[in-house]
Amino acid sequence: MTHPARDALAARLRAAGSVFAEDEADLLLEAGAGEPVRLRTLVQRRLGGEPLEYVLGWAAFDGHRIRVTPGVFVPRARTTVVVEQAARRLHRYDRVVDLCCGAGAISVGLLGRVGALDLVAADIDPDAVDVAAENIGDRGIVVAGDLFAPLPDRFRGVVDVIAVNAPYVPTASIATMPVEARDHEHRVALDGGQDGLDLHRRIAAGAGEWLRPGGAVVIEVSEAQSEMSAAAFAAAGFSAVVEHDADVDGTCVVATLPA
Questions:
Q1: What is the reported pLDDT for 125?
Q2: 43, 66, 183, 246 — which has fewest CB within 10 A?
Q3: pLDDT per residue over 97-112, tens digit each?
Q4: Residue 256: enclosing H or E segment and its boundaries?
Q5: What is the residue-wise DSSP string for 213-248?
Q6: How far apart are CA 110 and CA 83, in angstroms?
Q7: DSSP H/E element including 250
Q8: Where do the H-state alpha helices sit in the chain?
Q9: How many CB atoms lie within 10 A of CB 234?
Q10: Helix 36-47 to helix 21-32 angle, to the nearest 10 degrees?
Q11: Quick check: pTM over 0.70?
């Protein structure tokens, strides 16, 4: 494609409200692979309001391309704070649970940073489980079910890190989310209950059964909710601190089980 064609595509995307029209144009042209019919289909999907990641079939995360399919939660850059904090606490072959794994982005990030791990990823959304299995491949096990329920019994009491990006949007706030999230991602990946922390409290109540002494939960949360989340883990017997990464505007609670 010529530069004028790229510029024309960027102009169409900009008129449709894209903030990063030039970057999106480049990615769509790459995905179109020189096939005009394919490119036209991709552009029409994007101009119709479908999230770019679903149109492309992948999302950029921590230096990786994570495959995503429509409805599955799209990894955000802010979640790299979880990867960073979890990776600091891990060595090769440690036992890790990626809870509420979505497309498996945290797992892929940790495998990339730490190396081989004894890893289990879990999610309640069967579509997410399918995509996570594709992203993780033979480097870990992906299971379907509610929080800790599907984890293998051999992980009980020996997990080094539970890395989590559980839904934390208050139910009433979902209506105010960007349209690309609220209209396209499965609600189960967004809705955290009345105050957004229903799952945080459930994880705080159940994680101690799975962690080794000195093991940690690293769980994403909004900055505004972070102290409430930390308090929930402290009430469950953890030592909890809030970590924030200004570069990605990401916040997490690191809750450590007493040794």
A1: 97
A2: 246
A3: 999 999 999 999 999 9
A4: strand 250-256
A5: EEEEEEEE--TTTHHHHHHHHHHTT-EEEEEEETTT
A6: 6
A7: strand 250-256
A8: 3-15, 21-32, 36-47, 52-56, 80-87, 105-114, 126-136, 179-182, 198-206, 226-235
A9: 15
A10: 140
A11: yes
